[in-house]
Design brief:
By secondary structure, the protein is an alpha/beta fold. The protein contains six helices and 13 strands. This is CoA transferase subunit A.
Length: 232
């Protein structure tokens, strides 16, 4: 069954084929469950003109934020962008194109893309700037806008544990956007904290079936906390 083994031995191999002007879908929410080593590899590769689809763009100096430092990102499709001063600066300077998308709509864009659904109607955003230029239809007396799904050239994902066939389990809130992102990449790359042999994972606990995963790599992670709040 060697042909089903998805494990690669280096980050160079994990992101082989990623080139300028591609679309990359990234899992994570804030700094929780981000594929931090795959992001670092993208920076190392120096690819430019990327369209990045992710809930947010990391923070200054970590996560997707590091790709802004070398002007590698041309466009961000995101829901929340308030934790990154460099992001704000590049947006206001006209260096970065930003498509703000309601969070649930962004999740559904990924899910629909992974399911082969080209577009869907949602009431979210109707009557706001989000709806500008989009088709509107009425269903049962309510107005809906047409949103196109998203498929990335690459999807980069952070998992907790996987078997060698690419069946992935996410840990607690690190699940967030990762399962959706994993379905929506033409090439899906997952980095995990532990890789086990096939048959060792409880099938009922698997979140992403291996059919969606093209490459799997074992990583070590900083897991930086975005905002630490403790009692005085």
């Amino acid at each position: 069954m060697a042909g089903f083994d998805k494990v690669v031995s280096s980050y160079d191999e994990a992101l082989a084929g990623l080139t300028d002007n591609m679309t990359v879908i990234a899992g994570g929410f804030g700094l929780c469950g981000i594929p931090e080593n795959l992001i670092a590899q993208i920076r190392k590769m120096g690819v430019k003109g990327l369209t990045v689809v992710s809930n947010n763009c990391g923070v200054d100096g970590f996560g997707l934020g590091i790709l802004l430092e070398d002007r590698q990102v041309k466009k961000m499709i995101s829901s929340y962008v308030g934790e990154n001063a460099l992001f704000e600066q590049q947006l206001l300077n006209g260096e970065l194109e930003v498509e703000l998308t309601p969070q649930g709509t962004l999740a559904e864009k990924m899910r629909a893309g992974g399911a082969g659904i080209p577009a869907f109607y949602t009431a979210t955003g109707y009557g706001t700037p989000v709806a500008e230029g989009k088709e509107v239809r009425e269903f049962k007396g309510r107005k809906y806008i047409l949103e196109e799904s998203i498929v990335g050239d690459f999807a980069i994902v952070k998992g907790w544990k996987a078997d060698r066939y690419g069946n992935v389990i996410y840990r607690h809130t690190a699940q967030n956007f990762n399962p959706l992102a994993a379905t929506a990449g033409k090439i899906t790359v997952v980095e995990v904290e532990e890789i086990v042999e096939p048959g060792e994972l409880d099938p009922t606990r698997i979140h992403t079936p291996g059919i969606y995963v093209d490459r799997l790599i074992l990583g070590t992670f900083e897991k930086r906390i975005e905002k630490r709040t403790v009692r005085s």
